Amino acid sequence: MLANFGFGALLLAFVISLYGIGAAIFGARKNSLAWVESARAAMLLTFPLITLTALALVTLLVRGDYQVQYVYNVTSSTMPLYLKITALWGGQAGSLLFWSWLLAAFASAVMLRRWDRDREFQPWVIAVSLVTLAFFLGMSVFLENPFERFWQTAGGQQVVALFQPAGALAVSPPDGRGLNPLLRHPGMIIHPPMLYLGFVSFVIPFAFGIAALITGRSDDRWIRVTRRWTLVAWLFLSLGLILGSRWAYDVLGWGGYWAWDPVEIAALNPWISGTAFLHSVMIQEKKGMFKRWNMILIILTFLLVILGTFLTRSGVLTSVHAFAQSAIGPLFFTFIALSAAISLGLLLWRWNEFRDEGQMTSLLSREALFLVNNLLFMGLLAVCFWGMIYPLISELFTGQKVTVGPPFYERATGPLWVALLALMGIAPLSAWGHSTAKTLGKALWLPALASLAAVGAVFASGVRSPWALAGFGLVALVVTVTLYDYIRGVRARMRSTGESPFVALWRLVGRYRRRYGGYIVHLGVVMMALGVIGIEMFQTETQGTLQRGESLRLGRYEVTFRSLAIFDTEDGRNVARAVMAVSRDGQPVGELYPRRDFYFDSGQPMTIPGLRSTMEDDVYILLVDWEPISTENATFKIYVNPLVNWLWLGGMVFIVGMMVAAWPSKEPELDERRAARRAAVKVAAVGD
Amino acid sequence: MDASSVTQPQTALPMRSGGRAKFIVGAVLIFAAIVYLIVSSTSAGAQYFLTVEELEARAGEMQGREVRVSGVVLGDTIEYDSQNLTIRFSVANIPGDHKEIERLGGMATVLKQAAQDSSLARMRVVYEGVKPDLLKNEAQAIMTGKLGEDGVFYAEELLLKCPTKYEEAVPEQAGK
């Protein structure tokens, strides 16, 4: 019954969003406020309806109604309540519904803002949001219905259908298959929603961008209105990616954090184009340049978001051999192709209206360096995209499937990441408009000296790899430049206002949130870079089988096997857990408990490392194998991962910086004043 | 400087017509660097994706090259030396084309049948490392490595997928 109710609400939401699209477009064409209002009401109505649908599904999941195929696939009776609830996004059908729900929530939130100055955008924002929403809802209604149930026909056949076939009986399996044990991790509970929040938030700036194209309003209003949406989207996407890495490090048991897996890349792609967008909108706001380019970037980001949603959840990419397993594939590609054609068509149509107001004059000006930043990000995107489609291309042209693995990505993106780090150190020092090598050199020589000193120190400690030295040097450069910029700002403020340093810092950051928040993000990035350099270039490992009391040595660490216990738990696991004593330079530093959980319901084991983390390095122990009865000996694999903790710490700093940048400003009129001033200057310039 | 630049270049990126040359040179340099990176890394990182049958047929040509092979794990053949962390097992051929797999009734069915069909091409595999949790009978193994002169495949990377969990897009727990 509940399943029918949920489906009814879903269907209604789908029909209403179709109506809303029509009403919005009609209202805009006829300039009829009543129709636009009606479309807005439709938009607002989708949210409660999809909420009801989602609640129905969550109730089924929690109740353990295994007649529903989706419930059967993703839950089992031994799972704790929080996992049953979060199983809403544990499978494909539920994820799609969850996506729709988020989109309805965000688009409705946008509808509630004040529209007085952007009236003309409204119908088109509604139309674009609803087209996207209708696509996802349609997918749920027709192809990936989470409410389909098991039935037994009169002929004794078991079928899956939404409604009871004539004469059929309901079939309820006694228990579900349960969520894959690898996914039963706290990180896994928030990682997908974070990614999805990021994905979905990008739809809003896209909708405004398209509205700007359709209405031909070529100022930067669409960017200003959606600035915070963009930052929030980026914040969540970044958070999702960082959480995913952490989860891989904690659970996947190979001592790594990023594997250049196609699914990871699918989530990284919109992040890359979104990052480029985030930087290049600043030039449009400041200089009125890059208008078309920004439009291209937001369109690209939207397309990559849709592609990413499809690839991360549909499972098509887990093997390059299974590229069309799911029925939703062709539809997704059609939707992406149509969106691309229409958006780019609109852009071409408005090409002349979106002419740039300013020009670039100096190669080393801030805007030119922003352009370099954009090119580098596009380079990263090209690498990732090439890696993804290369198997298809090679098969098309040579008939031979050739894939590219992590070595390809590492080799191709490494220099680009390094160049971006360098840019992060240089760009904040360059001036808008005009900047020469001389002025830039003047600002740069002190930080450069500091970074050379850092390279010297690292060299003295015995590091000889040129890449590592360059990496450490650039990290030092970015840190000094960023701190220098902070100090400069605080000093200037102290001088002009007489405030104490802390008050000056607080007010400075409060006033220019995006700039100083952005710098905090940069600091977070270099901290993460430190972690990446540490684990990628200096990871060491060893393995061996130990009797009780025996030890393994790795670098400065000695790990002793104390004991091993094997026991069953109440939640359906058999656990083998070793006790390992760890000492560093001969000093005991504690015990670690690497273990192996075997899940009875899915028949799958899962390796949980024993981990000791410090800012200097991590000891990461895996329990590989053991003598089952006597538990006298066991095999371990041990990694020492230098500096990797900086990756996670940097991730946190990164997020804090994003929050500073995205925090609602108390002075919204400030922007307006600035824009007005710029317009006045332009008028004056034209009058010359 | 020159006020004649009223007409804008029709590109997505704004550049001053007077000083355009240096921007174009700069952009072309960056572009060329990116293309070079992609092209050179592609040939360095390329892996042929073959089925067991194809690898057998082209053994001479593929020897010593980095290749990716997909096959079904034969449970009885798994030998695990936990002292030296060496795993030996055999895989049987499964079709490489997804349409073919669909036609034969889906991946789960194909894996099940291939594991029982002794007429299919088979290959010995050696993998050094921790035994992955998913290495068991009828699992799909995607192996990256090189074919040795002894006809044994030396895998450097081993990705595994379980037939029962086939619908879920689960990251494989695999050795690196």
UniProtKB/TrEMBL annotation, chain A:
Q: Which residues cross the membrane?
A: 6-29, 41-62, 82-112, 124-143, 194-216, 228-249, 265-283, 295-316, 328-349, 370-393, 413-432, 444-461, 467-487, 516-535, 646-664
Q: Is this entry keyworded Transmembrane? A: yes
Q: Which GO terms describe its cellular component?
A: membrane
Which Pfam families does this entry report, sorted A to Z?
CcmF_C, Cytochrom_C_asm
Cytochrome c assembly protein domain boundaries: 89-314
Which InterPro entries does the annotation name?
A: CcmF_C, Cyt_c_assembly, Cyt_c_biogenesis
NADP in keyword set: no
An example Gene Ontology molecular-function term: heme binding
Q: Which domain of life does the UniProt lineage start with?
A: Bacteria
Q: Name one GO biological process term.
A: cytochrome complex assembly
Q: Which UniProt keywords apply?
A: Cytochrome c-type biogenesis, Membrane, Transmembrane, Transmembrane helix
Domain spans labelled Cytochrome c-type biogenesis protein CcmF C-terminal: 335-662
Q: What protein family is recorded?
A: Belongs to the CcmF/CycK/Ccl1/NrfE/CcsA family.
What name goes with this protein? Cytochrome C biogenesis protein
The scientific name of the source species is: Levilinea saccharolytica
What is the phylogenetic placement of the source species in the record? Answer: Bacteria, Bacillati, Chloroflexota, Anaerolineae, Anaerolineales
